[in-house]
From TrEMBL:
GO molecular function: hydrolase activity, acting on ester bonds; RNA binding
Organism of derivation: Fulvivirga lutea
PANTHER family: CRISPR-ASSOCIATED ENDORIBONUCLEASE CAS6 1
InterPro entries hit by this protein: Cas_Cas6_C, CRISPR-assoc_prot_Cas6, CRISPR-assoc_prot_Cas6_N_sf
Cross-referenced NCBIfam families: cas_cas6
Family under the similarity heading: Belongs to the CRISPR-associated protein Cas6/Cse3/CasE family.
Coiled coil: none
Pfam family for this entry, one: Cas_Cas6_C
Record-given protein name: CRISPR-associated endoribonuclease Cas6
Keywords of this entry: Antiviral defense, RNA-binding
Residues in CRISPR associated protein Cas6 C-terminal domain copies: 114-249
GO biological process terms on file: defense response to virus
Gene (name only): cas6
Length: 266
């Protein structure tokens, strides 16, 4: 399930870095720890977007000028989402960068129909390789239209699905059809305009900074519907619980498929 958390922005014009996933990851982790439930604190099967709102770009990053800012949080575990929301709404205010945000409301995104072929867009960068201290492997560039690109995403997806314990070995073996096909015209336009679709991003784990290469472009994913559903709710690739690999359906407006979401504050 995916929810949109709506915050009131108390200081318009304030800013965050262009890539602020690591700040959001730290905020989310802090709120999970505040609830003192070790199972939820160590839970990793979730995903989130960057902050969304009316922005302008400067050298400092993204300045927000809308009265409200939203964050999409996704997980197949409703109890986890409710736990996070309950603890979040115990705060009068949270700070991300220089933004002062007051939790205001929650909306539920209606689910989509999962098929064997879906065109996705990346609403946070897609990371192929994991990283370790003083290791530059994860910064290596891999062409999106190669089998290696798809194979790495397939391996990480099946491993994560297996770790959930929600799929039998027979099911996992049946998910062998998996292919990522990038939108070549989109990549060609970026290349012609000398713009990048792959950049180096920071990731923090236990106060250690890593650097990884993230990709942002539309692509069609060919996979079983259960695999499509898994990555839609849990993210695709590495470091999904750090805010990477969140997808949305191309040519779709998620604001048009939202419902009010109620949860227990107790």
């Amino acid at each position: 399930m995916r929810v949109r958390i709506v915050f009131a922005l108390k200081n318009r014009g304030s800013h965050v870095p262009f890539h602020h996933q690591f700040m959001l990851a730290q905020m989310i982790k802090g709120i999970l720890m505040k609830g003192q439930n070790s199972e939820m604190i160590n839970y990793t099967l979730y995903n989130f977007s960057g902050l969304k709102g009316q922005t302008k770009v400067s050298r400092k990053g993204l300045h927000f000028y809308s009265s409200r800012v939203t964050l999409v949080l996704s997980s197949p575990n409703k109890d986890f989402i409710d736990y996070f929301l309950k603890n979040l709404f115990n705060f009068e205010q949270v700070e991300i960068g220089t933004l002062f945000l007051k939790p205001e409301a929650v909306e539920l995104e209606e689910s989509i129909e999962f098929e064997d072929s879906i065109k996705f867009i990346c609403i946070s960068p897609l990371v192929l390789l994991s990283s370790s201290f003083n290791d530059s492997t994860a910064k290596r560039f891999i062409q999106p239209d190669t089998d290696s690109f798809s194979d790495m995403l397939y391996d990480s997806t099946i491993q994560r699905m297996q770790e959930t314990g929600r799929f039998t070995e027979e099911e996992l073996k049946s998910f062998y059809k998996f292919q990522i096909v990038p939108d070549k015209s989109y990549l060609a336009r970026l290349t012609a305009a000398q713009k990048k679709f792959a950049r180096i991003y920071p990731v923090f784990d236990q106060d250690v900074k890593y650097e990884v290469r993230g990709y942002t472009f539309p692509f069609t994913m060919y996979a079983a519907p259960k695999v499509q559903e898994f990555v839609f709710h849990s993210g695709l690739g590495q470091f999904t619980h750090k805010g990477f690999g969140m997808l949305d359906v191309a040519n779709s407006n998620p604001s048009q498929r939202v419902l009010n979401y109620e949860f227990s504050y107790a």
